[in-house]
Amino acid sequence: MSSTGEPATEVRHTDEPPWAQVYRAESPRLMRLATAIVGPADAYDLVADTVGRVVRRADLHTIDDLPAYLTLVVVNGATDRVRSDRRRTDREERAGRLMVTSSVDPTNALDVRRALDRLSPQQRAIAYLVYWEDMTIPDVAHRLDVSEGTVRRQLARAKDRLREVLK
Fold it and tell me: Which segments carry the region annotation Disordered (predicted)?
Protein backbone atom coordinates (compact mmCIF):
# COMPACT_ATOMS: atom_id res chain seq x y z
CA MET A 1 0.00 0.00 0.00
CA SER A 2 1.14 3.53 -0.69
CA SER A 3 0.98 6.26 1.93
CA THR A 4 -2.27 7.49 0.33
CA GLY A 5 -4.06 4.24 1.11
CA GLU A 6 -4.09 3.09 -2.52
CA PRO A 7 -2.39 -0.07 -3.66
CA ALA A 8 1.06 0.89 -4.87
CA THR A 9 1.78 0.19 -8.51
CA GLU A 10 4.30 -2.59 -8.63
CA VAL A 11 6.40 -3.49 -11.61
CA ARG A 12 6.49 -7.27 -11.58
CA HIS A 13 8.96 -9.49 -13.32
CA THR A 14 6.84 -10.96 -16.11
CA ASP A 15 7.09 -11.31 -19.85
CA GLU A 16 5.19 -8.04 -20.15
CA PRO A 17 7.47 -4.99 -20.48
CA PRO A 18 7.54 -2.63 -17.47
CA TRP A 19 5.98 0.23 -19.42
CA ALA A 20 2.97 -1.92 -20.31
CA GLN A 21 2.47 -2.91 -16.66
CA VAL A 22 2.64 0.71 -15.52
CA TYR A 23 0.40 1.93 -18.33
CA ARG A 24 -2.24 -0.73 -17.68
CA ALA A 25 -2.26 -0.07 -13.93
CA GLU A 26 -2.16 3.74 -13.91
CA SER A 27 -3.65 4.99 -17.18
CA PRO A 28 -7.35 5.02 -16.17
CA ARG A 29 -6.69 7.28 -13.18
CA LEU A 30 -4.19 9.43 -15.07
CA MET A 31 -6.64 9.78 -18.00
CA ARG A 32 -9.34 11.12 -15.66
CA LEU A 33 -6.87 13.61 -14.20
CA ALA A 34 -5.49 14.71 -17.58
CA THR A 35 -8.99 15.05 -19.04
CA ALA A 36 -9.98 17.32 -16.16
CA ILE A 37 -7.00 19.59 -16.81
CA VAL A 38 -6.46 19.64 -20.59
CA GLY A 39 -9.70 18.16 -21.92
CA PRO A 40 -10.34 14.89 -23.70
CA ALA A 41 -8.64 15.85 -26.97
CA ASP A 42 -5.17 16.06 -25.39
CA ALA A 43 -5.52 13.71 -22.42
CA TYR A 44 -4.56 10.46 -24.17
CA ASP A 45 -1.40 11.91 -25.71
CA LEU A 46 -0.43 13.53 -22.42
CA VAL A 47 -0.78 10.28 -20.44
CA ALA A 48 0.98 8.17 -23.07
CA ASP A 49 3.84 10.69 -23.30
CA THR A 50 4.11 10.88 -19.51
CA VAL A 51 4.26 7.14 -18.92
CA GLY A 52 6.65 6.75 -21.84
CA ARG A 53 9.03 9.42 -20.51
CA VAL A 54 8.95 8.04 -16.98
CA VAL A 55 9.61 4.47 -18.11
CA ARG A 56 12.44 5.53 -20.45
CA ARG A 57 14.15 7.86 -17.98
CA ALA A 58 13.72 6.18 -14.63
CA ASP A 59 14.45 2.88 -12.99
CA LEU A 60 10.89 2.16 -11.86
CA HIS A 61 12.10 0.19 -8.86
CA THR A 62 13.77 3.29 -7.39
CA ILE A 63 10.59 5.38 -7.31
CA ASP A 64 9.05 5.15 -3.83
CA ASP A 65 5.48 6.12 -4.77
CA LEU A 66 4.96 5.58 -8.48
CA PRO A 67 1.28 6.73 -8.55
CA ALA A 68 2.24 10.00 -6.82
CA TYR A 69 5.21 10.49 -9.14
CA LEU A 70 3.11 9.88 -12.26
CA THR A 71 0.42 12.24 -10.97
CA LEU A 72 2.98 14.97 -10.47
CA VAL A 73 4.45 14.44 -13.95
CA VAL A 74 0.97 14.50 -15.56
CA VAL A 75 0.02 17.71 -13.72
CA ASN A 76 3.30 19.35 -14.73
CA GLY A 77 2.90 18.21 -18.33
CA ALA A 78 -0.69 19.44 -18.41
CA THR A 79 0.38 22.79 -17.00
CA ASP A 80 3.03 23.10 -19.70
CA ARG A 81 0.51 22.16 -22.37
CA VAL A 82 -2.05 24.68 -21.12
CA ARG A 83 0.59 27.43 -21.05
CA SER A 84 1.73 26.54 -24.54
CA ASP A 85 -1.84 26.57 -25.86
CA ARG A 86 -2.45 29.95 -24.28
CA ARG A 87 0.63 31.41 -25.93
CA ARG A 88 -0.51 30.15 -29.33
CA THR A 89 -4.01 31.51 -28.98
CA ASP A 90 -4.41 35.16 -29.84
CA ARG A 91 -6.15 37.54 -27.45
CA GLU A 92 -9.48 37.64 -29.28
CA GLU A 93 -9.85 33.86 -29.36
CA ARG A 94 -8.87 33.62 -25.72
CA ALA A 95 -11.42 36.27 -24.75
CA GLY A 96 -14.14 34.54 -26.76
CA ARG A 97 -13.37 31.15 -25.22
CA LEU A 98 -13.36 32.51 -21.69
CA MET A 99 -16.49 34.68 -21.95
CA VAL A 100 -19.31 33.45 -19.81
CA THR A 101 -22.71 35.10 -19.77
CA SER A 102 -24.41 36.12 -16.55
CA SER A 103 -27.24 33.64 -17.17
CA VAL A 104 -25.13 30.50 -16.69
CA ASP A 105 -27.13 27.42 -15.74
CA PRO A 106 -24.88 25.37 -13.40
CA THR A 107 -26.52 22.13 -14.54
CA ASN A 108 -25.28 22.67 -18.07
CA ALA A 109 -22.13 20.59 -18.57
CA LEU A 110 -20.73 23.01 -21.15
CA ASP A 111 -21.05 25.92 -18.72
CA VAL A 112 -19.31 23.91 -16.01
CA ARG A 113 -16.52 22.95 -18.43
CA ARG A 114 -16.04 26.60 -19.39
CA ALA A 115 -15.96 27.54 -15.72
CA LEU A 116 -13.33 24.87 -15.06
CA ASP A 117 -11.31 26.21 -17.99
CA ARG A 118 -11.08 29.52 -16.13
CA LEU A 119 -9.16 27.88 -13.30
CA SER A 120 -5.39 27.62 -13.32
CA PRO A 121 -4.06 24.14 -14.14
CA GLN A 122 -3.06 23.63 -10.49
CA GLN A 123 -6.50 24.71 -9.23
CA ARG A 124 -8.15 22.37 -11.75
CA ALA A 125 -5.94 19.46 -10.69
CA ILE A 126 -6.60 20.06 -6.99
CA ALA A 127 -10.36 20.44 -7.50
CA TYR A 128 -10.39 17.26 -9.57
CA LEU A 129 -8.45 15.23 -7.01
CA VAL A 130 -10.58 16.48 -4.09
CA TYR A 131 -14.04 16.37 -5.67
CA TRP A 132 -13.83 13.65 -8.31
CA GLU A 133 -11.21 11.35 -6.82
CA ASP A 134 -12.41 11.99 -3.22
CA MET A 135 -8.87 12.51 -1.99
CA THR A 136 -8.12 14.24 1.29
CA ILE A 137 -6.12 17.47 1.54
CA PRO A 138 -3.04 15.62 2.90
CA ASP A 139 -3.28 13.03 0.10
CA VAL A 140 -3.53 15.73 -2.58
CA ALA A 141 -0.56 17.58 -1.04
CA HIS A 142 1.47 14.36 -1.12
CA ARG A 143 0.42 13.53 -4.68
CA LEU A 144 1.30 16.98 -6.02
CA ASP A 145 4.33 17.47 -3.77
CA VAL A 146 3.03 20.74 -2.32
CA SER A 147 2.10 21.82 1.20
CA GLU A 148 -1.36 21.24 2.63
CA GLY A 149 -1.69 25.01 2.95
CA THR A 150 -1.13 25.38 -0.79
CA VAL A 151 -3.83 22.80 -1.48
CA ARG A 152 -6.29 24.57 0.84
CA ARG A 153 -5.54 28.01 -0.67
CA GLN A 154 -5.79 26.81 -4.26
CA LEU A 155 -8.99 24.87 -3.53
CA ALA A 156 -10.56 27.94 -1.88
CA ARG A 157 -9.57 30.10 -4.86
CA ALA A 158 -10.97 27.52 -7.26
CA LYS A 159 -14.30 27.41 -5.39
CA ASP A 160 -14.48 31.22 -5.31
CA ARG A 161 -13.76 31.41 -9.03
CA LEU A 162 -16.35 28.74 -9.87
CA ARG A 163 -18.99 30.48 -7.72
CA GLU A 164 -18.23 33.76 -9.49
CA VAL A 165 -18.47 32.26 -12.98
CA LEU A 166 -21.50 30.03 -12.34
CA LYS A 167 -23.70 32.54 -10.49
Answer: 1-20
